[in-house]
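Page 37, continued from 36.
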């Protein structure tokens, strides 16, 4: 493990009716022992695991000093996925976070890991903070761990009823993985309807991978029909 001082992290796609390949906390307490053992004064420690619960080596863990500028402590998990950061004697509070870098389909990505406890802690009490890699799901501070797939209708006239306008809420997307996901797992097909998000209309929390995407127009009480729309996938920020 290494220690150092540190400072405190679309892809346009077209979906034209048929298919398209696209790339797409715990309790609030700070006391008591965690899964990685008893806490120690002036120390934060824990373990990082992958989506299958296996140890993750090479994860960067940052203990962010909440009071003093430019005095964070950074470490890297070992082969067994564990880390231990000594925080010093300063009377301050800390918050721990972890990041994992992975190469996928010719690009490098950085993923935020999910903390077992997202609450800041006092240095003189110490803490146990474990981290797990999640491909989807809500982040403690808001947002999602997955990528976004968003679309727009390119034709607003309903061919089955020219007097009615098409509504994007009635578009149903099916995403079928065409290869392993970023964590190496096979993934499963996903069928869902979109929703409004700050980034656009679509599916905001999809595991990063390559997919075939199909869309159909399926308003209530009517047979489904293929729709024409523009689709884009928003992916985690590539590493510099």
């Amino acid at each position: 493990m290494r220690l150092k001082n540190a400072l405190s992290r679309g892809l346009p796609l077209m979906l034209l009716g048929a298919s398209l390949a696209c790339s797409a906390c715990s309790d609030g307490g700070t006391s008591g022992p965690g899964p990685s053992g008893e806490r120690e004064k002036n120390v934060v420690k824990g373990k990082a695991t992958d989506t299958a619960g296996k140890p993750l080596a090479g994860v960067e863990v940052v203990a962010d000093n909440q009071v003093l500028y430019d005095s964070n402590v950074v470490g890297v998990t070992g082969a067994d996925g564990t880390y231990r950061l000594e925080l010093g004697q300063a009377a301050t509070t800390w918050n721990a976070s972890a990041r994992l870098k992975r190469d996928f389909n010719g690009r490098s990505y950085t993923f935020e890991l999910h903390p077992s406890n997202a609450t800041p802690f006092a240095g003189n009490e110490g803490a146990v903070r474990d981290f797990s890699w999640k491909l989807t799901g809500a982040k403690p501070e808001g947002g999602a761990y997955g990528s976004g797939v968003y679309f727009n209708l390119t034709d607003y006239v309903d061919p089955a009823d020219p007097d009615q306008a098409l509504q994007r809420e009635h578009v149903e997307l099916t995403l079928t993985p065409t290869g392993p996901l970023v964590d190496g797992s096979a993934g499963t097909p996903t069928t869902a309807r979109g929703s409004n998000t700050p980034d656009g209309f679509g599916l905001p929390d999809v595991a990063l991978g390559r997919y075939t995407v199909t869309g159909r127009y399926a308003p209530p009480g009517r047979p489904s029909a293929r729709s024409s729309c523009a689709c884009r996938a928003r992916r985690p920020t590539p590493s510099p």
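Residues 147-234 form one domain. Flag for discussion at group meeting. Confidence is low (pLDDT under 50) at residues 1-34.
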